[in-house]
Amino acid sequence: MIESVFWCLLGIISGGIAGIIPGSAAFIAVAIFYSILEGLSAFNILLFYVAVLITTNYTNSICAILYGIPGDATAIATARYGHKFFRKGFGHLAVSSNAISSSIGSIFAIGLFIVFYDYIYGVFRFYNSTLQVVIISIAIFLITFSVRQHILKTISLFILGGILAKIGFDNLTFESWGTFDNPYLTLGIPFNAVMIGLFIIPEFLKFVDLQISIPKRITKFGMGKNTLGATLLGSFIGFWSGLIPGVTNILGSYASAVIVKRYFKMPYLKCIAAAESANNSGALSSLLPLVILGIPIVGSEVLVFYLVSSTGFVFGLETIDTFKNILYFIPIIIGICLVVSWAGFNSLGKVSYLIKEYKNYITCVIIVIISIIAISIYPVKEWMIMCIIGLTLMGYLIRRWDTIPIVYGYFLTDLFWDNLMRTMIIHF
Fold it and tell me: Which of 251, 281, 9 is nearest to 146 (CA)?
């Protein structure tokens, strides 16, 4: 129990920091602690991730409201409308709507989960390898076309990720692929090296020239009136959007804000409430396809899927009980996040500014730390060092590309191929 509380609090801290760094969010929070998380139980890994996920949905609105820069894609609506309120002197309303609506969205999702708990098994009882191939195919399609760059670049990076994952000796088939009789290549390409060289470094380099001004202090706090209806609507839309693989809470957030803007009077503050409640509600419900079906959709879920699978944990209908036990920690997480994101908004704003001001130094420290951890736990240290250096050089060359398809390709290629082979054996 004490160990689980520790990982829950660490998830809150790391998620809170990651949320206020533009372009960071849950993926970076999990990636930084990836090497440490490898030794945990499946429950603690999922608990850490849930804490990160909820916390980032609170703190990613800090940059959105202060600077008009969304911490990640889920905070786009808050950046659009919250920053307008801030410039007009009503930043306190944007802050309070963000904090309160995020909390209601999370509570709403927990309530629906409890109400429909007995029926969740029925929803997924028709699931099989054939359906998984279809869902993964749709997920890969949506991921490919949602990345904002030329489609050929995205496909090439996805294939590169699959190739990197395939290199090495397969302990199940006892066959080697892409090793060229090199003893080091038989070890495979470590994912930690792929993550550091081909995602973290290019991602940090994208924001190296980002300029933000010193934040103004918000001197009062208050509740926005008549936002409850928009909050509940956003919670409902976000929850069901999160259950659909490939849709996630990003679309739920955007759709909620659009509907509120179109049909509600004086909508801007209500748009923030709807978007933020949809974020948190959808963030929790989107975990169900991962926990029950074993299908990771967003980048951070891909990392968690690989971490949990490495423990020997088998995703399936019975794992819903594991997720249910995590729900007992969520009210604590919500309470801490509510206090920190509301009462500590000004302090977080200063931290966000300082992080950006000294981002180059902080980035170097982070990369060095996670590299040292990755090298220290890998059995053949010289191979890990060579991989990190080689992939870092490659990552620098493609630093202007969105390299997250490499991560998807690294994990989803095998997941898709294994289920496709099972499906072909069953039907043919």
Answer: 251
